Amino acid sequence: MKVMKFGGTSVGSVDRIRDVVRLVGEAAATDRVLVVVSAFSGITNSLIEASQKAVHGSAAWLGDLDAIARRHAEALSALAANHEKATLHETVTRAADELRGVLQGVSLVRECTPRTLDSIVSFGERVSALIVAAAFRAAGHASTACDARTLMVTDQNFGAARVNFSATHDRIARWWSTQTPLPIVTGFIGATESGETTTLGRGGSDYTAAIFGAALDAEAIEIWTDVDGVMSADPRIVATAFSMGALRYDELMELSHFGAKVVYPPTVHPARAKNIPLVIKNTLNPGFAGTWIREEADNPPLGVRGVASISNIALLRLEGDGMVGVPGIAMRLFGALAREHVSVILISQASSEHSICFAIEPVAVERARRSIGAEFALERQAGLIDELVVESDASVIAVVGAAMRDTPGSAGRIFGVLGEAHVNVRAISQGSSELNVSCVVSREDERRAVNAIHEAFFADHRTVSVFIAGLGRVGRALVDQMTAQVSGLRERAGLRLEIDGAATSRHMFIRPGLAGTSLRDTVEKEGAPKVMADLVRAATVSRRSSAVFVDCTDSEETMGYYAQLLDAGVHIVSANKRPFGGDLATYRTIKAGRRRGRGALFHETTVGAALPVVGTLADLVRTGDRVRRIEGALSGTLGFLMTNVADGTAFSAALREAHELGYTEPNPREDLSGSDVARKILILAREAGLPLEAGAVKRESLLPFAEWDAMTLAEFWRRLPELDAAIGARAREASLNGGRLCYLASVTDDVAEVGLRRVEAASPFASLRGGDNMVAFWTDRYSESPLVIRGPGAGPDVTASGVFADIIKAASLAR
Ligand code: ADP
Ligand code: ASP
Ligand code: MG
User: Fold this and answer.
1) Could you say which ligand is closest to the alpha carbon of residue 10?
2) Whole-model pTM?
3) Which atom of ligand 2 is nearest to the CA of 203?
4) pLDDT for 229-286, tens place per residue?
5) Which residues make beta-bridge pairs with 212?
6) What residues contact 118, with CB distance under 8 A and at least 6 apart?
């Protein structure tokens, strides 16, 4: 025979119950089956809430009760055979009336003892079993509901009663021999010897199933729920959690004790005692073979079977000089907790014995404080023990795997990734069996910690969160490149970049795993109005072990958040020149933030697009080289213009051509003024260690007088040929002896300037053609001939590839 237990979600609706009837019907064709049911989903919670309302004097419990009764009545009329409906309806109504009477009493005395609560919540399972059995009969099975209170003998520990196994086994064995083929047994409930109703603890129907299975030597105990078995982590926390084919009893016990609520922890014991496999199956996916739990299971490759967590615990610490070397302290401490029925989730004691740290449920804190206070009153007075320290808002994380004990480095790996994810570990506990390494972290770090550990043990890659501000030409090209490289990046770098938020100048969209394809449209159409502070916050609280904020804007708004991002350990990749080439105070604040914060800052593309200019300069400076002089042709537009002028084209014609090819700003005067070039040399000067103010760069504009700025654009184009003669003459003069005229930026110890310069034939700049950029560094090490970097230094695609490379560098760093 086998036991099939159906949880609340599996009997939550008429359709689900029909599925159950079908599933059990198929199994019962070849095997004897005993069915255990929970209350309909949500009913136990509703009953508890109703009693709380009654205690607090609110009449709202009456409405709750009506809703509960209605839900059952509807299921009954949909599922029971017609000839039974009236009698069954009467039975259910009688139970509901009885329940109403109890709640009425609670609301009068304003007190609900654990004993009363147990009799109230038992309603859920009792009625559920009646209705499910009726559904079976309606489908042609000989089936009866069984109230387990007549079989399950417990003590009086209401709310979490302990089972008297020998008495219970005897009764079950006797009862079974007299049963109809298909009994439907209430889970969760039992009764004392004298017949008072008890419950086995929340989620206790699983336990009922195991106890019946053990008493009847079942071949298997099947727990049917709403997920594919036991998963490597709670699927609501880890999106990539996967279901396991098999695990060991002791592993399940640890996982469930530490929050994997798919099975109630005590369930393991009866099954294990009789070596009966526990099988966790999915009512919504009956084809899934189930997770099989037995004494042994194949070892997972890195030793870890799964990760679980409990979200809300309190961490308590007892410490004091009077504890060192004194025997019996731990016994008295845990004795005091036991007297108050406080269950301890985790214990950790430093070997100095100076302090003992333990985790309990927050509701038990006051009881624990009182009891420990009384126990150690004398030591407190004598100053031998300090006041009990209570930290709330903590979570316990448990990493479980029996094979960890034979896998060196598993604990190292766990704490390594937690460190990388910048999760502060408050307490650690590892039993010598090494079945479970558990630790206490801040509640707000729980998601990040569980995901980081899960990824470290189960994924072949690391996922990094990316937030992109600015989806202009560069931002869009970047997203396209990232999208095209998803699998390449995973293979080459073991990296998965996940876009978890993006913003245009007007809208933003924050959601894990945004698709790159038509991201801009998605953000514009589905996004909320842009609030930069919210995008920044999303990056700082990212659940991933690393997060990168990408600034592809050309605005001053983002830079105000750099310090906050860096402080939170978020890395910044910026293609935005404003934070670095604006006023010196801002630049200094950002760099100070970089030194103080944990995040890294990359802005390679602010000079020469993807050419490795900023990084090279940083390497020179970091390794102690001294920069003597930097020269650069830093504008593709001006480079193109001056090459054509050198070849004999008139300046105005060359500008017109550049404009038509899209090489200039819409208003070409912005290129001709040289201010963009001035900003870039300023950035390089500052990176080289020169604290220059923005106004310190001497700038020669190609438009000699202010009147040029005042003209309309049409007038500008009309009068442009007036400049041809002078520039043409300078170009011809410069070309003597193989030289040429270039728009150059330069910086030395005392001067930074940009403007038209003649370069000698021997200069590396003399050979520069078209729109290429070039930067030359003269340093102590490169004193004879400069270190030269040359190539295309503009355009959205190359700029985006530089940003992409920076993101990959940032992503490989810890948080
Ligand atoms: P039932 O009503 O069937 O008893 P429960 O709600 O008690 O179902 O337990 C199933 C739920 O447990 C799943 O829906 C899932 O959200 C949660 N859960 C937590 N951790 C895990 C895990 N490691 N594997 C599977 N489910 C888990
Ligand atoms: N109905 C009970 C509860 O919600 C028992 C169970 O579902 O296993 O806790
Ligand atoms: Mg359950």
Assistant:
1) 1
2) 0.73
3) 8
4) 999 999 999 988 999 999 999 999 999 998 888 999 999 999 999 999 999 999 999 9
5) none
6) 158, 159, 161, 189, 196, 197, 198, 199
